Amino acid sequence: MQRAGVRQPNRSDRVDLKHINEIERATKRGRAELFRIGMALIFIVGVMLYAAMRGEGQGSLILVVAAMIGGYMAMNIGANDVANNVGPAVGSKALTLAGALVIAAIFEAAGALIAGGEVVGTIRSGIIDAGKIDDPYTFIWVMMAALLAGALWLNIATAFGAPVSTTHSIVGAVLGAGIAASGFGVANWDTMGTIAASWVISPLMGGVIAAAFLYLIKRSITYQPDMTTAAARMVPLLVALMVWAFSSYLLLKGLNKIWKVDFPTALGIGLILAVLVHFAIRPLIAAHSRRIGNSKQDVNRLFTLPLIFAAALLSFAHGSNDVANAVGPVAAIVDVVTSGAGAVSDKAPIPLWVMMIGALGIALGLGLFGPRVIRTVGSEITELDQMRAYCIAMAATITVIIASQLGLPISSTHVAVGGVFGVGFLREYLKKNYSRMLGEIKMHHPEDDQAAIDAFMTRFSKASIEEKGTMLAELKQNAKQSLDPAHFSKMERKGLRKVYREELVKRSQLLRIVAAWLITVPASALMAALLFFMIRGMMLP
């Protein structure tokens, strides 16, 4: 009974309350987005004020604008490109998102400041012939347009959650702005051809190497009846191999600007470290393996700590190398403006304050906008665990080492994402084979002999790879019937397999990412050309 003076809520009130809750959730998301944008604007304003204090004379305005664009570019590099280093670790639950952001931000900034180098090329990878741009102010406009176009394209890709190549973005932008300034003859088309080839080489190499490592782990650990014993034997070797690859990679790509070593020396130092680590961790892993269960989930935990170190070292090497994408053109502009001679040099020194802009921008962009692309790489392409994430990290490292020695231009983004797809497609292949085996087992048993099927499947799941093959061969020889107990038609079975594949590797993500890769260079080139004409129109009297 309703009490006097007290109004009971009716259906309309409940509907209104539901709408209010939805509005509050939407408002909360909007506030978070406004906070991120506000922090980014504060950083850009801070860069503007700092650059204004350092500039003198008529070049002061140019330095301020260039520094602001460089800071914007650095934030977009952090938001998009760094996801490749920490995305698999986050997707596999080896790192939380917050932990990954902290580690990546620290090591990206450290790599940029400690090993970012004192000199960068003013024209990235020889994309255009600097000698054909005689006027220094035209060169400045080309660099500004290229930097802004590359940053805008990365911003668009990040908004859609698509991991794209930072290097390809700036390469396409320099190409487009250079052509707008001096015509098609300014471009080095041979270099562009090798870069176009890397669109195919990078993901294929990454995918094949990641799949090979995953297959090795499955054959040597997860397909064994006693997984803990197999893990105690194999995990120290796999970790030592990771130490070898990562220490060599760090010497060749991360510290190469402050300590020059040749390829054999880097491999030798890495091998020594790997042997030391192997003997140090082997008793620790053996002791830990005796305390865990004989399951894949327990074995996965043995890869957690190596993945954390991998994320940190990849971030350090990325910061030391890709900071040039953000501050290289800025350093070139600073060199032209402050040299007095007005000449365009092939190399430009990087002032410390310019390097600081790049380092802080990358760290801030990662923290504010990085989670979107990290989720794409880590969890929205295929399901990852620690073993699969280990394979992706190894693929990213080994591919870069091999390609650098062969002189092949590759994208670390394409390699890492290719590794994610590689482990996903290998899982599809193995699951398909396993499903086919199950189908053969069921077809060679009578429909009402479920007990025999269950008994066979129990023995089959516990058998080794060799024993599984023997059991299937005997089954085919002794079986007389070929009926499907489930009575699925061929079309129904095909439909079920298709649905299952879609769950293992999401085709929508594959198509979206490949499309973003293909249009990165032409899109950034077109934007850079338009921006160059706009800047020149504003600057000319």
Describe the protein:
It is built from 18 helices and 2 strands. With 541 residues, it is an all-alpha fold. The protein has 2 domains: 437 residues, no CATH class; 71 residues, no CATH class. Strands 1-2 form a two-stranded antiparallel sheet. Helix 5 packs antiparallel against helix 18 and helix 8 runs parallel beside helix 11. About 2% of the residues have low confidence.
Quick structural summary:
Helix content is 78%, strand content 1%. It is mainly alpha-helical. The protein is elongated.
Topology, element by element:
Blueprint lengths: L10 H44 L5 H21 L2 H9 L5 H19 L3 E3 L14 H24 L6 H17 L6 H34 L4 H28 L8 H27 L6 H5 L3 H36 L7 E3 L2 H29 L5 H21 L5 H32 L6 H13 L2 H14 L11 H15 L2 H33 L2
Antiparallel strand pairs: 1-2
Helix pairs in contact: 1-2, 1-12, 2-5, 2-11, 2-12, 3-4, 3-12, 3-13, 4-11, 4-12, 5-6, 5-11, 5-18, 6-18, 7-8, 7-13, 7-14, 8-9, 8-11, 8-13, 11-12, 11-13, 13-14, 14-17
